[in-house]
Queue: 2 jobs
Job 1
Amino acid sequence: MGTNRVGVGSVYLLACLILGALRSCNGGISSSYARSNSISADMPLNSDVFAVPPGYNSPQQVHITQGDHEGKGVIISWVTPDEPGSSEVIYWAENSELKKHAVGTVVTYKYYNYSSPYIHHCTIKNLEYDTKYFYEVGIGNAKRQFWFITPPEVGPDVPYTFGLIGDLGQTFDSNRTLTHYESNPAKGKAVLFVGDLSYADAYPLHDNNRWDSWARFVERSVAYQPWIWSAGNHEIDFLPEYGETEPFKPYTHRYYVPYKSSGSTSPLWYSIKRASAYIIVMSSYSAYGMYTPQYKWLMSELPKVNRSETPWLIVVMHCPLYSSYVHHYMEGETMRVMYEQYFVQYKVDVVFSGHVHAYERTGRVSNIAYNIENGLCTPRNDGLAPVYITIGDGGNQEGLLYEMVDPQPRYSAYREPSYGHGIFDIKNKTHAYFAWHRNQDGYAVEGDSLWFENLYWKSSQDSLSTSF
Ligand SMILES: [Fe+2]
C-alpha cells in the first residue's frame, strides 16, 4: 500500500515536472515554449529567394490553384515583366507523348504610381485524376517547365493531405516556415492558405513590388502544388487618400480562383471538392450579413454538400471565430454570431483561420443558444460542433503575438505563439489526423496534434446507436 502511495506520488511528481513546462488554466494548455521575441525582418529584395529567372521576359511568379469544382482543372498563373508575350500553356501527362495547348488571358492593373507586369491566367480543364502533368510557360529562350499532380477522384474514402499555412509574408521566418513545410515527410499535396499573403501593404504606398517578390518567393512550392487561396485583411489594399478605393485590387488581379464553378459571384468566397474534402472559402472582409451576396451563396451552398460523397467539410476564413489572444480579440465575433449556427447545423468538421500570429486549437465547442434575453452566451462542449484552428503563424514582419487572455478560456484547448505550419491528413471517411509543426522542431516533434473523427460519420453512428 505504502509502496503504491509512493508510486502514485512519484507519478504525480513526474506529471507535475512534465507539465511544468506547460501552464494549465481553466481551459486547456498554454504552452510556455519560449521563442525569442525578435520581430523578423523582411528578406532583402536581392535575396536569392526573390531571384528573377534568367532570359528576356522569362515567366516568373508561377502559381497554380484548383481550376474547377471537382479537381480535374488547374488554373496556372504567371507574370511576364517586359512585354505580354504568350498566355499559352503546353502540358502533357507524365506517361504521354501527346502535348496539349491551352491559351489563357493576360491582365494588368495600376496601383497609384505602380504599374503591374503582365499577369497571365490559364485554366486547364478535364484532366485525368491522380496523374502527374508537366507544363511549360514562356516562349523562345525563356521557357520554363514545372509539374503538378491532380488529386484522386472525389469520393468518401479517399486519403488526402492538406498543408495549412497562413499570414506568411516574406521574412526570414517566412522562409523557414515554407522550407519546413516543403520538407515535412507528411507531404502536403495542396495548401489551404488562410489569408494574408505578401504584406506588401506594410510598405509606403503599399509598394506592389512586394507582391511580385512574394510570388517569386513562394513559386518553389505553389508552381508544383495548388494553394487554395482565401483573402485576409492584408489583401484589402484600400488606400483612398491615394485614390485606391477598389478593395482587393492587387490580390484579385494576381490570384484567380474557380469561384464561378461553385455558383459564387465573387472570387472572395467559393468552394471546391478535393478528394474526400469539401472546402468552403469565406471572406472575413466582405459583407456577410443577411441578404448579402456572400450570405445568400453560403445558404444555398451548405445544403448542397453531399457528405456521403465528401465527408470532410472544411471552412477556411481569415479571421478566427474563436481566439483567446489579446490582439485581435473578438474581431471575429460578428461573423461567429452570424454563421456559427450553420457550421454546427451542417456539422462542419473544422474551421481554419489565420490573422492572429500564433497557433491555437479549440475543443469541440458551440455557443449558439443566446437569444438576447436568455443569458445563454457561454461556449459549451459540443461533440458535434467544429474544431477551430488558428494558424496565422507563417512568420510575417509583424512578429508573433504573446499576450493571451488569462485565465485560458475553457474553449481553448492549446495555444502557443510560435511560427509553424499544419498538416491535415485525411486517412479515410472516418478519421483524419491534424498536426502542428513548429519551425524549430524536427518532424518527430509535434507541437500539437489531434485525431479527428468525421462528424458526419460520427453523427450517423450516434443516430444508429440511439435508434436501437
Ligand atoms: Fe490578418
Job 2
Amino acid sequence: MRAPQAERFSELFEQYDWAATKASIYAKTAADVERALASEKPNLEDFKALISPAAAPYLEQMAQKSQALTLKRFGRTLQLYAPLYLSNECQNICTYCGFSLDNPMRRRTLSGSEILMEATALKEMGYEHILLVTGEANKTVGIDYFERAFKALQPHFAQLSMEVQPLKQEEYERLLPLGLHAVLVYQETYHKEDYKKHHPKGRKSNFTYRLDTPDRLGRAGVHKMGLGVLIGLEDWRTDSFFTALHLDYLERKYWKSKYSISFPRLRPFSGGLDPKVPMNDRELVQLICAYRIYNEEVELSLSTRESEHFRNHVIKLGITSLSAGSKTNPGGYVVEPQSLEQFEISDERSPAEIVEMIEAQGYEAVWKDWDKAYSGLLSKV
Ligand code: SF4
C-alpha cells in the first residue's frame, strides 16, 4: 500500500536525516553510476549516484546523455530573461547578501515611473520575459506594491516572473490575473541548522514557512516554480538531493505546474561571505547533467553569476534559459546605474553579444518563455 501523500513538503522532509542522506550519496560506487546512466527512468537513488564523487570519471558520458535529452525535449533553443530589481530594502539578515539589513547602504525602492523607465530599457534590448526582484520589506514592497508593478508592466511584456519574499496563497492568486507567470523561491540550503545560522533575523529565518512556499504556489495554480539552493553554503551534493526530492514531490502533487532549477554559486559582494563548501566548474557541469538525466522536463537556468567562458561551454549540455546583461541593483539599467549591487555579476556581455554567442553555436535565442504558448497550442489540439 502506498503511503498517504504529505499535505506539505515539510512533512516529507522531516522523515529525512541530513547526515544519513549525505553518507548515502558519498557511498555510491561506479556500478551505481553505470546503472543510473543505463536507466530509462532514473529515480532519486540514481540521482544520488550521478551527483556523487563516484560519477566524476563519467563526466563525458553524462554530458553526452544530457545534451541528447535536452535536444530531444527542448530543441536548439535557449530562452533569455533579465532581472528587474525593484527594491533593495530588506528586513532580513542573510549572511551572503549585499542587501542584508545589517549592511549599511542607501535603500531605494523604484517608483511607478522609474519601473517603467527600467522596463523600457529592457524592452529596447529585446526582452519579453522579465524577472521582478526585491528584498523583503513588507511595508514598502508588499502585495499592494507588487500589484501596482504588475499592472504597469503587464501590457508591455509577454511574461512576468518574480523572485521576492514568500507570499500567502491568496496573494499569489491576486497576481495571477495580472500576468504572474513564474515564481522563483530558492531554499538557499536544506540544512536546517545552518539555515538558521545564515538567516538569524527577519521572516526569512522561518525555515519551514519558506520550505512550504512551493506548496502555496501549487495550490494557487502558479504556472511555473523555480527551485534551487545557494551553492557554497553547505555540501552541494546533499543540498541538490533535497532539491531533487522537493521537485519530485511537487511534480507529483502539482502536476499542472512547470518547474525550473537554478544553480547560483556564491558570488562576491561588499562585505561578503566565502563559500563554506566550494564547487568547481567540473562539479557544476556534473550537477547540470545529473539534473537533466534525472528529469527530462525540468528547465535548467544559468545566470550571469557564471563567467563568460563557463557559460559559452555549458549552454549545449542541458541549460534551457539564460539571463543576459543583468543588473542586480534597483535602477541599475538607467535610473541609477551606480547604486550598490546585490552581488557582482561575472558575465558582463550585452544581450546582443549573448545572442551572437548562442547563434554561433547553432542555437536560437528565444526572448519569451515559449512554454506557455506551447501549452496553449496543446490544449487546442
Ligand atoms: S537574500 Fe533576500 S531576504 Fe536575504 S538579505 Fe538579500 S534581499 Fe534580503
